[in-house]
Structures are given as C-alpha cells and as structure tokens.
Amino acid sequence: MTSAPDPAADVYEGRDGWLFLIRGNNRVLEQYGRPGVSRRTLWRWRRIIETRMRRCARLGATYFHALAPEKLTVYPEWAEGLAFNSARAPALRLARWLTASPGARAWVDLTGAFRAAKDGPPLYLRTDTHWTHQGCVLAYRTILARMGVPPRDDIEARRERIALPFTGDLGLKFMPHRSESAEGSAIASEARRIHANGLLLEMEALGRGGDAHLGAHAVFRNDDPGADPRRLVIFGDSYAQHTPHSPVATLTALFADTFREVHFLWSTGIDWHYLDAVRPDFVLGEMAERFVIDLPPHGIRIERLAELARERKLMGEFTAADSRSPAPPPPDAPASVPEAADAAPR
C-alpha cells in the first residue's frame, strides 16, 4: 500500500518560521533552475501579451499585464539553506523576453517594486503565499502608476486595523496548522457589488464564497464622486479576488474603491466576447508568477468556465461520502488548483 504524500513537503520553512512554496504541481523551485520555464513558453507569453494589447486597443481599451511575484523571488535570503537562483525567477525572465517588444508597454514590474520595498514592513504573510495589506497596496499603486491613474490617498484612514489569528494556505499544510496574527485589510468604501454569477452565488449560499475560484465573476459599482469614472476589467486569480472582505489583502477591493466600475473574472485566459460587450477603458491580466509555466487557453467564455467549475465543486467536492476520483479540472485551471476547498496554495 502506497503512503499518501506529505503535503508539507511542498513547503520550505525558512528564517523565523517563514514558509515558502517550493513544489506543488507547478514545480515552483524547478522554475528557478535550468531549464526552468522553457524558452518556448516565454516566447509564447510574449506573443500572447502583444496580441492582447492589439485586440484591447481595437476595443478602445489599454491592456496591462502583472505577475504577483513569489516569496522566493522577493525574499530569497529568508529561505535560508535553500539552494536556488533567484535571478532566474520567471517574472524576471519574462520581463527580459519582452525587451524591445511592444508588449513591454503593457508590463507592470511588480517584482522590481517589491524588491525595492522588501526592507520595510513585510509584504507577504508568514504562513501564506499572499500579500499583507502593505504588499497589496504596493501592487495597487504600482499598477495604477502604469495606468496613469492616481491612487486613493485616504485608504489607511478608512481601514479597519483589527489583528486576528490567521492560518495561511501554506500553514494549512502542517499538522498542527501553522498560524500567525494578521491585520485586517477591509476598508470603508462606497463600492458595492452589483453582479455575481451563478457559481459565486451558489458557493456563497453554502457558506463557502471564499472557495469560488476559477469561473467566479463579480462586478462592482462605486458612486463616490471622487471615484475615477472609467471602467476596469480584471482577469485574475486569488491576488485580486471577487470579494472586498477576504482575510487576505486583495487587489479587487482597492480597485473597486478607486474606479466607478470594476469587473473581476477569475481566469488566466481572456473572454473577448465579454470585453466586446463591456467595452472597458482598462484591462488587467493578473496572475501568480508560478502560473507562467502554464499557457492560458484560447477562446474561453467565463460562463462556460463557471459551469465546468460548478460541476466539479458542487457535484464532487461537496459530497463528503463520495469516494470516487474527482472530476478533471476546468481547462483554464492552473496546475496548482486545489483539489479540495481547504487545500492550498491557490
């Protein structure tokens, strides 16, 4: 009988209990080695970003592309004893491949911004792959600077600063779980959700809205007179998210507080039919750095993706007595998509 794999083997414990994702289906640590992310994959990402820019321009929108850097990329010195080459971080290599490409105009250098600020307050949670409030605000300001949009400067004054016990996606891999104290990032805002698709509503009805991942779709409206009157569409993942009330800091809440209208679609691919109908001013493609290893699908439709995700989650994961093999992941699923609601990282 084969023993079950140890989930904690995907995680490396560095200095002062800081946890780093190193394996998983995305083979994170291998991406920093040789060959790492293949040259063919990087070349295709270059072409994808160029194509997205051109197609968005034809719709009257400006496209931007941002990778949420891995902890290993920003804090390699905190992963004491782990042998890897942070200079070969996928985000750095993709940025080099965009040199002299029209796609360079769409690139948002979050890695450079995070490395420049890493000696200040921590930008990531100790037990999680995601950002602290400070890290999220830094990403928000960096993206807006590329867009030429001024940030809201009163965010801190409207923020709820309540520190709560928190167990991150990496901490959940240990038994007992590893926890930390995390300061809340919710802000008082005029932004309100005006649309959620069926997948998200069904998950929320089950009390598991936070587990709605691929295929989730939400729209936010902000009638604050100080909001930027333009419309932003985000194709993103858990660093952006579909809720302003997540225990981890997410970009969507900050953007919804800034723009008149924000649409969030959880997908690495672009739904061009949706963009043609919405006609946004800005389109942001956001994804975790480790997902660079997977190319996005062509011709995705957000509702079809939601249907596939609903079949997987509502017909499989929520049937506790069902011991059958799980349904295959949606075609847009990154390699590290969780197999269960409490699996991690996302």
TrEMBL record:
Pfam families in the cross-refs: ALGX (PF16822)
GO cellular component: periplasmic space
Region ranges (Disordered): 317-346
Domain AlgX/AlgJ SGNH hydrolase-like positions: 11-147
Keyword Signal attached: yes
InterPro entries: ALGX/ALGJ_SGNH-like
Annotated keywords: Alginate biosynthesis, Periplasm, Signal, Transferase
Record protein name field: AlgX/AlgJ SGNH hydrolase-like domain-containing protein
Lineage, top ranks: Bacteria, Pseudomonadati, Pseudomonadota, Alphaproteobacteria, Hyphomicrobiales
